[in-house]
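Weekly modeling sync, notes
Attendees: S.R. (lead), two postdocs, one rotation student

Agenda item 3: backlog of single-chain predictions. S.R. asked that every request posted to the team notebook include the full sequence so nobody has to chase files. The rotation student volunteered to paste the first one in as an example of the format we agreed on. Action items at the bottom.

Example entry:
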Amino acid sequence: MPPSADHLPRREILRIGALSVLGAAVRGTGCPSPLQAGDAPGASPAVGDAGNASRRPAKCIFILLQGGPSHLDLWDLKPEAPAEIRGPFQSIDTTVPGLRLGELLPLTAQVANHLAVVRSVEHRFANHIAGTYITLTGSEDQPDQDREAHADDFPGPGAVLNYLERQPTRVPASVSLPTWLSIPGPSNRMPGQYGGFLGGVRDPFLISGEPQQADFKPLSLSLPDGFGLERMQSRWSLLGELERATRRLEDQSIVTHDRLSQSAYELLIDPRVREALDLSREPQPARERYGMTKIGQSLLLARRLVEAGVQFVAYNAFNQEWDTHGGLIGRYRELIPGLDRAYSALVGDLAERGMLDETLVVNTGEFGRTPLINKDAGRDHWPHAYSTVLAGGGVRGGQVYGASDPRGAYVASQAVSPADLLATMWHQMGIDPQTELRDRLNRPMPLSRGRVVHELLG
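Predicted structure, as returned to the notebook:
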């Protein structure tokens, strides 16, 4: 249950007093605020391997190409369809016989043996916000219209992992980069990526900025002037003493504050995280392999964070950049080569490092695009059939799962919902999709109402 109003003054005293020991060191990180009104702490439910005892639970890099990339021009081309459907791009061979991709994905075609192309994803939401929400949560309890995030939303994957943590760890469970998903509006908060009914304290950490720039200095690489690590550790020790002294005055609601402040501190001093975020440590040829672009260096950063122990890294495309209602040819010639280089490098790099089997890479939009090219030489929103591509994490590579009809308009076989994909993701991460979450009214909610698509697994 939410903390009662009479607890707020004591909590505010703690926030102003004890947290101020860290001073600008924590406030300057860009980390989420301390415990917010409405956060509902409680015992985390049990986490099991859900039938995956023979292999290590996977970590996940979740690439959301927000705006809706066209399945008909990337993953599910229709070369035999009329010109107004097949579009301007040709299909090309890949390393997998019979699997063809769009001509702007030549590097991805070379790692197709690691990919599972799911061509039969469908849902009913044609709005960007609604489509993103169901992609990240599986929840259909929403209107098909614009809205901003609110406290009763179903939590996103990163927030769920924070909730399921049995105890704070030295490495964050989840990180989002290089921006939050955004929408026009007063708060600019896209639903589905935050803590929702689990509370804002469960939000993932955001590593923001332009990682392709030489002056990229994420939060863990810089402390305020004159605030070295020894001083930071000394102040943290003092903070611990203050919090132990105030423990007698506080109830269980303060425990969530502890997790957040501890994680902020660890981000500042833990060498694994600090080094993972320091891209200057990566050899220049490796950086160039990913491409010196925002998506390229973000996916390299994602690989480094997973290597450092982060369970879930979300890559968020900025401001619906894949929304192509017009000028599709020119826009895709700008967008797709950067994706092709970064994505193929990530999959290949993980495979070469022996990390791919334990790292699930999800590459998806919130929906696809219309079969017919419109009057503005673009394609419009289309959720009735589109593609999601999986790699690693125990998913069998070199396969196509499901099919759309000859126009790419509707699912013809083996329909898959976003909830099914999320259930499969949770299963491969060693978490039972039926794990029980508790909302703000302490009502039980299953983590996923989807089915695990076992046919995809190796």
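Discussion: group reviewed the output briefly. The longest helix spans residues 328-352.
Action items: rotation student to repeat for the remaining queue; S.R. to check formatting next week.
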